[in-house]
Amino acid sequence: MNKKGVSPVIASVLLISMVIILAGVVFFWMRGFIQEPTILSGKNIELVCEEIIFRASVDGNQLFLTNDGNVPISELRIKIQNPGERKTIQIDEVTLNGGLNVGGTAIVNADEIVGAESLLIIPVLKGMKGNNEALYVCDERYGVKPQ
After folding, report:
1. Which CATH class is domain 39-142?
2. Distance between CA atoms of 48 and 71, rounded to whole angstroms?
């Protein structure tokens, strides 16, 4: 008898191997779509943004900030709009002397805000993403227009 082809055992091993490899490829591909959430105070940081309460006022090139909420603000993004120009500046943790803590105030000098048509101050929070610290810029709807 002249047999040609693959034995059933080898065919089964090849089939199982292909299924395992395909499952691994799909797993790692899907993992790219699902991001690990950034956590602050045991909550998803996107939900913590809703709890932010802060005030801002402008006098010349000085920005006066007060954190009236229960969430520490690490940094700020300031969206500046002038006729024919839009830009965003970053106020980092160092400029805010360690951030805008709960009940804290800060005065920031920013020459870019002088004469601006419109300002929007957006909070940036610091949370944990896995074992690493990560910054999260809150949505613009949680921003404040200075008085």
Report:
1. mainly beta
2. 8
Under DSSP, the state recorded for 122 is E
Measured CA to CA, the distance from residue 11 to residue 138 in angstroms comes to 54
Q: How many CA atoms, within 13 angstroms, populate the side-chain half-sphere of residue 79? A: 16
Answer for the pair 100, 73: CB distance below 8 angstroms, yes or no.
yes
Half-sphere exposure of 126 (CA within 13 A, CB side): 14
Per-residue exposure over 41-63, b if at least 16 CB sit within 10 Å of its own CB, e if not = eeeebbebbeebebebebeeeeb
Summarised one tens digit per residue, pLDDT across range 64-76 is: 999 999 999 999 9
pTM, two decimal places:
0.75
